[in-house]
Write a structure and sequence with these properties.
By secondary structure, the chain is an alpha+beta fold. 19% of the residues lie in helices and 26% in strands. It contains two helices and ten strands; from the N terminus they run H-E-E-E-E-E-E-H-E-E-E-E. It is elongated and about 85 Å long. The C terminus is likely disordered.
């Protein structure tokens, strides 16, 4: 075999192997799920974890097994295991919720890149309950705040600030009707 054919075969093997590696990476990255976890549910219960609410026996969350995540303004957020295996729940309590004194949303934990629960809290803020593997960075760049590894919130739009006071170079003129005009 000549040197030309040896180089051609070697180059084809390198290109073929490189192509397989790239296609494998793309397949794994985009098509194979990343197992999701909510490790906060594994830690020991504390007094802070107790949901001060009336237990709803018909709910999907094990309220007595809730773990405190965070509070934002007057709303508290908890993670709770679901009644079914592999399910995680977001439990929200607020002083305005008189009917059950809490509410819950549950979802199966599958892919760690997916949002488990996306809701609006009683104050109309968007809230996301996510697994441990979730990438917060893109949402944080869009104005979301991470309150806990498993909890993101989008604060309400800021109240517009008043315009800056006039500088010393601005001149006020009085009109005949007693109004000041800034120039």
């Amino acid at each position: 075999m000549t040197l030309f054919w040896k180089l051609t075969i070697t180059l084809a093997a390198i290109v073929g192997t490189g192509t397989c590696v790239v296609l494998g990476f793309i397949y794994v990255h985009f098509f194979v799920g990343v197992p999701g976890t909510v490790e906060v549910l594994e830690r020991q219960l504390t007094k802070q974890d107790a949901v001060h609410a009336i237990q709803d026996d018909e709910g999907d969350a094990e309220i007595r097994e809730s773990r405190f995540l965070a509070s934002y303004e007057s709303t508290s957020y908890y993670a709770a295991p679901g009644i079914d295996p592999g399910v995680a729940c977001l439990v929200v309590t607020s002083p305005w919720d008189d009917e059950r004194s809490y509410w819950e949303m549950c979802h199966e934990v599958r892919d760690g890149r997916d949002v488990l629960v996306g809701i609006q809290d009683p104050d109309s803020r968007d809230v996301l309950f996510v697994p441990d593997q979730f990438d917060h960075a893109p949402l944080e760049r869009d104005g979301w705040m991470t309150l806990h590894r498993n909890l993101l919130i989008r604060p309400l739009a800021e109240v517009p600030q008043p315009a800056e006071p006039p500088t010393s170079s601005a001149v006020q003129q009085e009109t005949g009707q007693g109004h000041a005009i800034l120039i």
